Amino acid sequence: MKLLLVNTRLVVIMLVALLLSSPVTLFAQDLSKANVEKVLSDAYNKFKDVKEGANADYIKELATVDPNIFGIALVTVDGQVYTAGDIQSMVSIQSVSKVFTMAKVIEEQGHQSVQDKIGVDATGEVFNSITAVERMRGKEINPLVNPGAIASTSLISGADSSAKWKNVLQVHSDFAGRQLSLNVPVYISEAGDNLRNQAIAHLLLAYGRMYFDPVEATDIYTKQCAINVSAKDAGIMAATLANGGVNPVTKKKVVSPETVMYTLPVMSTAGLYDDSGIWFYNAGVPAKSGVGGCLIAVVPGKFGIAVVSPPLDKAGNSVKGQYAIKYVIEQLKANPYLIQPKQ
Ligand code: GLU
Fold first, then answer.
1. Ligand 1 neighbour 86 (Cβ under 6 A)
2. 146 CB near ligand 1 (under 6 Å)
3. Which residues span the domain enclosing 32?
């Protein structure tokens, strides 16, 4: 009897010791259907009435887009699609397209070619800066701001302008998992008013850093920016990056895992214009915004998330997009830099 008592005491002591020494899961991620749906719906309700920001108007057609459009889509690498709000309305993808064109160029030519022919450092200047090109004599421009993006479009394979455009539209469609199309009024509106981008393309040509006719390359770039997407399309595009280049809904291999590996760091350092550092500091995930109000973010190996909401802050990023995505990442404990220490 005494022996039994001693043994029971020993077992209890050992159990307590084991409990104290085992790592406590402080940062458990819960990506269950119920939790993700709750977090998305909370994010939608929390931010739907935010009135900050204003539509971009330097492209006239963008000023006419309904500022109340607000949709969130989170797509997991298993192909689960979760949404909240308006995921039907479409906006022009604008600068978010720069990611997919850059990825296609990396896929076609290899990552070194993008580093050598365009550059991958953040310019530290506004997205359509001419002085950045001049200061660097056409070198070290970045594929996620206009000069590097137009250079990127000029590098896309295709014998002529129409073949290049077809290739650009196709890769965007493959990322989204459906045939995307052009927002013609936005394209016409910007094409009639893009002398600054034409100037950038010509300056790059002068420095030997434009790889196709500058007028035609700018035109394809302008079309690429006018591709229409919904929050759901953009969420699937982001999820394809999160899933190493395979579209998790259609299962099509769009680009290789290595291409994604070189694409995400550029998004991390230059995805949100002049606020890229502030974004990365606060959210910890690669993202890209566009002046049409689309914002995508990628949690590698887990999920892609996108918001469409046209009003932008001073840096040109969707206000509700930033609030909602940051909130969802926090709630789901999905910041990759939130590290569970080994005990
Ligand atoms: N098409 C726009 C431009 O070139 C894209 C700008 C953006 O979304 O950052 O001005």
1. no
2. yes
3. 2-331
CATH number reported for the structural domain that contains residue 158 in this entry: 3.40.710.10
Residue 288 CA to ligand 1 center (angstroms) comes to 12
Question: Residue 291 C-alpha to ligand 1 middle, in angstroms?
Answer: 6
pLDDT tens track for 195-214: 999 999 999 999 999 999 99
Measured from the Cα of 197, ligand 1's closest atom is: 4
Q: Is residue 294 a part of any domain in this protein? A: yes
Answer whether residue 341 is part of any domain: no
Tokens standing for residue 67:
């500022």
Pocket test for ligand 1, best of 60, 65, 95 (most atoms within 8 A of CB): 95
Terminal Cα distance for the chain, rounded = 37
Q: Does 11 map to a domain?
A: yes
Start-end of H helices in 118-176: 131-135, 146-155, 161-176
Residue 336 within any structural domain of the chain: no
CB 304 within 8 A of CB 239: yes
CB of 221 within 6 A of ligand 1: the answer is: no
Instruction: Give the list of residues 6+ apart from residue 192 with CB closer than 8 angstroms, or none.
Output: none
Q: What is the pLDDT of residues 59-114, one digit of tens each?
A: 999 999 999 999 999 999 999 999 999 999 999 999 999 999 999 999 999 999 99
- Please count the structural domains in the chain: 1
Query: Using 50, 70 and 90 to split pLDDT, how confident is the model at 1?
Result: very low
Instruction: Write down the residue that tokens 């010791």 correspond to.
Output: 17
Per-residue confidence (pLDDT) for residue 329, from 0 to 100: 98
Rounded-to-integer distance, Cα 256 and Cα 64, Å: 38
| Rg of the chain taking only CA atoms, in angstroms | 23
289 Cα nearest atom in ligand 1: 8
Inform me whether the pLDDT recorded for 121 exceeds 80: yes
Please list, in sequence order, all residues whose beta carbon lies within 8 angstroms of the beta carbon of residue 18, skipping any fewer than 6 positions away: none
